[in-house]
Structures are given as C-alpha cells and as structure tokens.
Write a structure and sequence with these properties.
- By secondary structure, the chain is of the alpha/beta class.
- The chain contains eight helices and five strands.
- The protein has helices spanning about 15-25, 35-50, 60-85, 100-110, 125-135, 140-150, 165-180, 185-195; strands at about 5-10, 30-35, 90-95, 115-120, 155-160.
- The two termini are about 35 Å apart.
Length: about 200
C-alpha cells in the first residue's frame, strides 16, 4: 500500500488553516484525515477538568504546567500523524510551528515522508480583525504568534487567505498534489540541518 501524503498547514491562529482543511476534505478528490493540534489540547483539558481533583494540595504557575505537558502533547500529536501515514492515510496537519525546537522535531519525524509544507499566509492586520470578529480566540493570540510562525521563508507552497477564499486555497493545494511535483522543502531543510550539526 502506498504511504500517505502529509499536508502540513503552517499559520497563526485565525489564518484560515481549519477552513482550508474543511475544504480539502469536502472536495473529496483525495481522502484526507484532519488532525488539529487544538483537538489534542482540548481533549487533554477535558481529561484534566473531568478527572483531576478539584483542589490540588499545591498551586503551580500556568507556565510550569505548559513546560511539563505541552511537549508531551506535541509528541503524541506527531506520533499519531506518523501512524496514520504509515497506515496509508493522507493527513492534514493543522498546527503551527512557533519555536525552532518544535520545527526541528517535526522535521526529524517527517523529512522522509511525502510532506507538502504549506504556508498559510495572512497579514497581521487581517488576523487581528478576524480575531475580533470571531470572538472565540483570545485577543492578541495571532499577533503574539506572528513573528515566530512567519519566520519561515521556505515552503513547497504558499496560500494567502486574504487574497484567496478557503475553496481556492484548497484547489491550489490539490492542484499541486495532482501535478506530481516533488515535496522538496523538508528534505532540503533536513539535509541543511544535518550538515550544520
């Protein structure tokens, strides 16, 4: 069985990743399994809210909790993507990479997979406007992620969600996949990282 394709959508909160994912799935030209990092964190939060004692003996800072838990959740997320790809599923990874460490972990896991590294681009002004309109995200989240997420300048493909609607973005991604062009950025970046170390 052929190994699955990984469409890795990298963009900030409110950039349009989930809308593009929905369109890719609805097009039904290629069957995709959608994995959002938000689902992994939400499921973990549900577990904490329903299974943890109401009042722990000691209070700790939210940053300490993040340091203990976040990397583990990302590891499970990556492992789940890897498993689905090995089983032959095509996967949309709806996530963001905001640190070198996270990027290198993702790169190490998926450089040898058919990975379409896709930048979901949007201006800071539009992200702020969307955040305020939506009302379901903390105000300032996209702005706080902007510099780290958009520090990458190498993608196999970019889609600009200010210039294109989600359907057009999905069609551009599908067109790239059907063109049989090589997904080269992850392989190139991996070689560069190995030669530097």
């Amino acid at each position: 069985m052929k190994q699955g394709i990984l469409v890795f959508l990298n963009g900030t909160s409110s950039s349009g990743k989930t809308s593009i994912s929905t369109e890719l799935i609805n097009q039904k030209e290629i069957l995709f399994y959608h994995l959002s990092i938000d689902d992994f964190f939400n499921n973990y939060n549900d577990f904490i809210n329903n299974k943890f004692p109401d009042e722990p003996p000691k209070a700790i800072d939210h940053q300490v909790v993040s340091q203990i838990v976040d990397d583990s959740i990302f590891t499970v997320y990556h492992s789940t993507i890897k498993l689905l790809l090995e089983l032959g599923f095509n996967v949309i990874a709806d996530t963001l990479i905001n640190t070198d460490k996270r990027f290198n972990e993702f790169l190490d896991q998926f450089f040898d997979q058919p990975t379409l590294f896709t930048g979901v681009i949007c201006s800071k002004e539009e992200l702020i406007r969307r955040e305020q309109t939506r009302g379901d995200r903390p105000i300032g989240l996209a702005d706080s992620q902007f510099t780290q997420v958009y520090c990458f300048d190498e993608y196999d493909l970019e889609v600009n969600t200010e210039e294109m609607n989600p359907t057009e973005c999905a069609e551009k991604i599908l067109s790239f996949i059907k063109s049989n062009k090589e997904y080269s950025v992850f392989k190139k970046l991996r070689k560069r990282n190995v030669s530097v170390s």
